[in-house]
Structures
1.
Amino acid sequence: MSNSILTSTKKILGVEADYTAFDLDILTHINSVFSTLTQLGVGPVDGFMIEDDTAEWASFIGDNKLINSVKTYTYLRVRLLFDPPTTSYLITALENQVKELEWRLNVVVDTRPRSYVNEDGDLVWILGQNEPFPSDAALGDIGIDVTTGDVWRNVE
């Protein structure tokens, strides 16, 4: 299975990986979906976009298995934009799946803990890429970006 965002999306759409005539269209729609996901609180805090077939899913979701449905969500949204079904019944079914996945993804990001105490007794804040510590963070608190694994201490 390809980990490339573009290649795997093309495959599930039924477009061969080496057929590039629609790449601009598909890339545009994928980036639109990533914009929506960012607004839902999924993925990197400062947004995400791809430009070719080198970007991989791990760059967007990291190792967070709780948001693996992003792949299906991306396909469904791209399908509705790029190659919508001809029957209203199928369009409605796909739109309902999109709504359910949006709700489920939103639940995951809204219910994950924002901080925890590690085994050394340090308060660890879960932060997005380039996200500052919250105003109630104390000096010396630890921040971790779960997508990149970067760890730092609050010194301000």
2.
Amino acid sequence: MTAEKQGVLTREAGEHVAIDALGYLAGEPEALARFLALTGLSPDMLRSAAGDPAFLEGVLDYFLADEPLLVAYAAQAAVPPERIVAARRALGGDWIE
């Protein structure tokens, strides 16, 4: 059984989940406005920030801190919410469960 099937994602897979989540966020104006306000980023800065691993960690942190957003994204992506948790673990950084 592969690590991903066991719920362990590679860093690359975690980054793909974060980028997909960011795409979802872009389609949710209210959640995106809150995210931009919290990060201090402008919409124009999002594209370049998406290449920064620390930024991707922050994207997933934002979803994990907002359960309704997390559940809505997971449903749209057709993945269990635990996959977003696994993606965040794969990105490492300073994250406390």
3.
Amino acid sequence: MQAALPRLRAGKVYRTSDLEKWGSNPTRLAKRLVREGQLQKLQNGLYYRPRRSSFGPVPPRSEELLRAFFAGSPYLVTGSARWNELGLGVTAVLAYPIVYNTTRTGLVRIGKRQFLLRRVRFPKKPSREWFAVDLLENHGLAGVSLQELEEGLRRSLRAGRLDGLHLQEMAERYGTRRTQERIERVRGSLSS
């Protein structure tokens, strides 16, 4: 007798281990579900249930790929989209997002997407000020000059879009000494 097929949500990414609740051999079940068109294989141990559109199957969202890839371990996505939202007057461009996490470092491909993983400390709830420090730390990777960033920070601090004390605190907790000094200099130039 064949086991009942699991109810799989469209757009969700599954690890092989997620299928254990529907069968004693989750690897065999995953292969069967791929054969029957219920799942598509992303890479070893990762599968997804495609959402359908009028143009065909829709790949999973990046957030869903990362949720399954890290399997409950904390992570934080940063990069161009987050940095450009700061309104510092610069446009950062990265080919792939940076994902801070507690387990791995390196450039990885999950499905058809690439992510730059970095095993570093990061806050559970990052603030705008933390993302500003993050951009300063990654300015070279983002293709942004430090002079432009400093001027953008001055404007944002003057306009009250960033909190100077919190910015300094984030630099002290998560930035290098150079970043800390740069922020001190920017804040000092506002009082003179």
